[in-house]
Amino acid sequence: MDFDPAAIEAPYYEEIIVDGRVTSVATLLPLCDGLVVCPDSETYASEKPQLVLYIRPSCPYCQKVTNFLSSQKKSIPTKDIGTDKNALNELIQKGGKRQVPCLMINGKPLYESNDIINWLKKHKGQY
Fold first, then answer.
1. Within this chain, do residues 84 and 39 fall inside the same structural domain, yes or no?
2. What's this model's pTM, rounded to 2 decimal places?
3. Closest listed residue to residue 52, CA positions, set 10, 106, 113
4. Does residue 111 share a domain with residue 57?
């Protein structure tokens, strides 16, 4: 099984469905001959994922995510990388880059405001 180098930049999350219901969510990585579930990435539907949203308040894409959360009357822990150097260092250490918005899901980064909003919509009852 050959590793696809694009997988480093393109992990994504997918629901695992058994008997018509979501049993867990896992990080999937594309390989040259298919997909593989990352070890220790599975979160079971009965567990609440650990979420942290890294933002800069002046960032329009961050505002898009925070406005979505407000519209849904939801809140998740948020860290401002512009004023909190520890948050910036944490983001770079865990995510490998300083891009915001970044939603850490059980320690795994998810970037891009539309991808974050889609994930939040898909997992509305879990956080």
1. no
2. 0.66
3. 106
4. yes
Q: List pLDDT tens digits, range 51-98.
A: 999 999 999 999 999 999 999 999 999 999 999 999 999 999 999 999
| Domain range enclosing 82 | 51-126
Residues 120 and 64 occupy one common structural domain: yes
Task: Measure the CA–CA gap between 26 and 105, rounded to whole angstroms.
Answer: 10
User: CA 55: distance to chain centroid?
Assistant: 13
Strands (E), 38-125: 43-44, 51-55, 78-80, 102-105, 108-111
Number of folded domains that form the chain: 2
pLDDT tens by residue, 95-115: 999 999 999 999 999 999 999
Are residues 119 and 57 part of one domain?
Answer: yes
